[in-house]
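pls read this stuff:
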Amino acid sequence: MKKFFLILSGLILVFSFVACKKKEETQPLPQTQVPQQQMPQEQTMPGQMPPGQMPQGQAMPGQMPQGKAMPGQMPPGGQEMGKPGMMPARGKSQIVVPPSVKGRWSGAKIIVEDKASKAKQEYTVKLNSDFKIPNSNLKVHVGEFLPEILFEGQTITSRSNEPNNPGLTIRVYENDKQIFPELKTGKQWAWLFAKVPSMHAFVHPKYGITLKEGVKKG
C-alpha cells in the first residue's frame, strides 16, 4: 500500500510539471512598442520653394507675373509707352510735335543701302519735303522728326527734345506709287527708328532705308 502511494505521488508530480510547462509555452509574450521611424523631409535646394508651392508674387509656368505683359503685347494701362518698338493703339493716330521740339530740328540723316553692291550712302533730308534717291526710281516724302518718341493711346509725340529714342515719319514711292507704308494698311505714315532699325523696317528687294539721327536747326 505504501508503495502504491509513492507511485501515485510520483505520477501527480510528473503531470503537474508537464501542465506547468505547457502553460508557460502557451502564455503570450509581452508586446513591445516599436518607435515609428520618421521619413526624412524632402530637402530643397537654396532658392527653391517646397514642392507644390509657388513663391509669392510669381506666376505659374506659362503665365506672366501680375502687372506684366506677354511678349508682343502692350503693358497694362499704357505704361512704358516710350520704349522703342511700342506702337500706338489701333485706330487713326495723330502726330503731335510738342512746343519743346517744334522748330528745333531742320532735318534728318538717312542711310540708303544698295543691297546688290552692299554700298551705303548717307543723305541729309529736310523735314516735310520730298527727296529723290539718286540713280533709283524711289522718292521719299519726309515728315516729322521726334527725338524721344512717346506713344500715348492714339497720340504720337515726344517726351523731350533729347535724342533718346529718335523716330522719323516717311512715305516711300516707287515710280510715283506709294509702297511704304502699303496703301492696304490704311496708314498715313511709316516710321524709321534710329535705335531699332529692324522695327517696322522698309522692305525692298534692291534698297534699304534707315534713320541715322536728327539734324538740329541752326
Q: What stands out?
A: Helices lie at 2-26. The chain is about 10% helix and 30% strand.
